[in-house]
Amino acid sequence: MTGDARIIDGKATAAALRAEIGREVAAIKATRGLTPGLHVVLVGEDPASKVYVASKERLAVEIGMNSVAHRLPAETTEAQLLAKLAELNADDSVDGILVQLPLPKHIDTGRIIDAIDPAKDVDGLHPINAGLLAGGKNGLVPCTPLGSMLLLKQALPSLSGLDAVVIGRSELVGRPVAQLLLQADCTVTIAHSRTRDLAAVVKRADIVIAAVGRPRMVKGDWIKPGATVIDVGINRLPDGKLTGDVDFAEAVKVAGAITPVPGGVGPMTIACLLKNTLTAFHARRG
Ligand SMILES: NC(=O)C1=CN([C@@H]2O[C@H](COP(=O)(O)OP(=O)(O)OC[C@H]3O[C@@H](n4cnc5c(N)ncnc54)[C@H](OP(=O)(O)O)[C@@H]3O)[C@@H](O)[C@H]2O)C=CC1
Ligand SMILES: Nc1nc(=O)c2c([nH]1)NC[C@@H]1CN(c3ccc(C(=O)N[C@@H](CCC(=O)O)C(=O)O)cc3)C=[N+]21
């Protein structure tokens, strides 16, 4: 492989996906007088979370959805948060519920996720949705894995038989993206902090999905020439800039195609949240 990799444009792909969803929302309004509704619950004052929630709210409004952010104080108790979720579960106008993570330490995240109606769980984190995905039967699929797969399929029309390495095994990203790759008939390896000789494991891969949370950890000489690299990492450097988990400057010289940070998986995550809200709307309200 000579020359630089093709840069996969997540920003443009996400904008196109949002425009398509916007047209569907408009059609639902015109023909049925209904508006899909997304509700994001934010507990506390985490600055990064505040920015994400504002961005989700703005983009949902832009495509014509009802978008409500429930901002609760940091001292909200688990019981109060469960009561808020019960209220949203019972409200027929609420199609999607997302509880922004991380939650304050005094709240048990698992208990909160379990309390979301799986039919409204647009983050795809409820054990029912995770279980369906593990069984190869999709319910609501987590947004970042879904967005990563859409970008991957843009670069590689056929994934069947390819070697895929996922670095990271979190419930939010690594595990579900590995399930989707398996569904697409890849041979999947899941690497994590105990993996021996990560560089050699990555070197075998036709597809690398990096979801680690360590800035520029994946080096250019780990990448098989021509491989497709999806960088999920969002790391803020001391100078305020964002960088991925892949050393982009090095990897772009070796890979066949690569996603940038920013402008890669991040915008797709939000577009897929809106897509999941529409999917949840149709599944519940026809
Ligand atoms: N683009 C987007 O929309 C989103 C981006 N992100 C970003 O993706 C990244 C991952 O997020 P998330 O999955 O939530 O993170 P977690 O911290 O939950 O998981 C990180 C995973 O990486 C593994 N890991 C850590 N260090 C190493 C190492 N040195 N070598 C190999 N594996 C390692 C961990 O292994 P172990 O299990 O053994 O501890 C763990 O499985 C972060 O940068 C996050 O900001 C997250 C969500 C959305
Ligand atoms: N319940 C829950 N679900 C999530 O999906 C979830 C979460 N909690 N907590 C935090 C992480 C992180 N996350 C991002 C979404 C969009 C961008 C994004 O759009 N990033 C832009 C840049 C934004 C900027 O400049 O700050 C980009 O990569 O181009 C990033 C990160 C969703 N998360």
Automatic annotation (TrEMBL):
Q: Which residues form the Tetrahydrofolate dehydrogenase/cyclohydrolase NAD(P)-binding domain?
A: 142-283
List its EC numbers: 1.5.1.5, 3.5.4.9
Which parts form a coiled-coil structure per UniProt? none
Q: In which pathway does it act?
A: One-carbon metabolism; tetrahydrofolate interconversion
Against InterPro entries, the record matches this protein to: Aminoacid_DH-like_N_sf (IPR046346), NAD(P)-bd_dom_sf (IPR036291), THF_DH/CycHdrlase (IPR000672), THF_DH/CycHdrlase_cat_dom (IPR020630), THF_DH/CycHdrlase_CS (IPR020867), THF_DH/CycHdrlase_NAD-bd_dom (IPR020631)
Q: Where is the Tetrahydrofolate dehydrogenase/cyclohydrolase catalytic domain?
A: 8-123
Q: Which reaction does it catalyse?
A: (6R)-5,10-methylene-5,6,7,8-tetrahydrofolate + NADP(+) = (6R)-5,10-methenyltetrahydrofolate + NADPH; (6R)-5,10-methenyltetrahydrofolate + H2O = (6R)-10-formyltetrahydrofolate + H(+)
Q: What keywords does the record list, in alphabetical order?
A: Amino-acid biosynthesis, Histidine biosynthesis, Hydrolase, Methionine biosynthesis, Multifunctional enzyme, NADP, One-carbon metabolism, Oxidoreductase, Purine biosynthesis
Q: What is this protein called?
A: Bifunctional protein FolD
Source organism of the structure: Bosea robiniae
Q: Which gene encodes it?
A: folD
